[in-house]
Write a structure and sequence with these properties.
275 residues, mainly alpha, 0% strand
């Protein structure tokens, strides 16, 4: 994998951890997530006006990915309702690289070498170990965290296939994100109402900026998947848990134990091996 791709993915990982921390720290996470999606929709539609539409063969995958992203949003919000960033985030992100590698081999016929697979296993194992407390995986939101990981794997493989069929990674990204950004507010209105969505709150700007950050982060990942194996890209992206652990420690009052430091070292080694 080229070094500039590795650096881009690591930058995306930092961005991803940042907006997840903003979401975890919000009081009404469903509202915050929806405002993020509104920001994504506005920017994506504006960009789409200046780009040619992606190839027709990729539109099915763009629509499917948008729906899967909404499911991911709902599960992520639910998992953060009762779980710490330092526990929930590692499980949801750590379970996805293995799932993506397996799904990519089935649906995209990708093959991953033994060395890269070992690196992916190290990254996933190190990430999931961050969620343990002693010898127990004591996570109240475990089913939702694992469900979030499944949604991540599903939309990642869907986008990996779609972007390769599109002939235009940027156009595919903005059209998919525009669809996703429109669907999420509709779901919110169905669950609550339009008035509560449009009511200005103190955290509005933070959520709006978080949406822009998430769009940039995932745009980088989709571009990377157009030129590199999905499983390896996913594993590198999930090094965002390193940044999440530090953000949780410095800004959210969460602990940073020796176990976490060792797990981070394993993740770093796995990342080097993949690179």
């Amino acid at each position: 994998m080229p070094y500039h791709i590795i650096l881009l993915i690591l930058f995306a990982a930092l961005l991803h951890a940042s907006w997840n921390a903003a979401l975890r720290g919000g009081a009404d996470r469903l509202w915050s997530m929806t405002i993020m999606c509104v920001a994504v929709a506005i920017v994506s539609v504006a960009m789409a006006l200046f780009l040619e539409a992606p190839a027709k063969a990729s539109w099915f995958y763009a629509v499917l990915s948008a729906v899967l992203h909404v499911g991911y949003n709902l599960f992520l919000v639910r998992s953060y309702k009762v779980g710490d960033l330092g526990q929930t985030y590692p499980i949801s992100r750590g379970s996805s690289p293995i799932l993506i590698t397996l799904a990519a081999s089935v649906f995209a016929r990708e093959t991953v070498g033994a060395v890269a697979m070992f690196g992916i296993l190290l990254v996933s194992g190190g990430i999931i170990s961050l969620a343990f407390r002693g010898r127990k995986l004591a996570v109240p939101s475990l089913p939702y965290a694992l469900g979030t990981g499944c949604f991540i794997a599903a939309y990642s493989v869907t986008d990996g296939i779609g972007v390769r069929l599109s002939g235009a990674p940027m156009a595919y990204t903005v059209w998919m994100c525009a669809l996703w950004g429109v669907l999420m507010p509709l779901v919110y209105i169905g669950v609550r109402d339009a008035k509560s969505l449009l009511t200005f709150r103190p955290g509005f700007m933070m959520a709006f900026i978080g949406g822009l950050v998430s769009l940039l982060a995932y745009g980088i990942v989709i571009y990377a998947m157009s030129v590199a194996p999905m499983g390896a890209v996913s594993a590198l992206r999930e090094t965002s848990v390193l940044f999440a652990a530090l953000i949780g420690y410095f800004f959210l009052g969460e602990t940073l134990t020796v176990r976490k430091v060792l797990a981070c070292a394993v993740i770093a080694i796995g990342t080097i091996i993949i690179g």
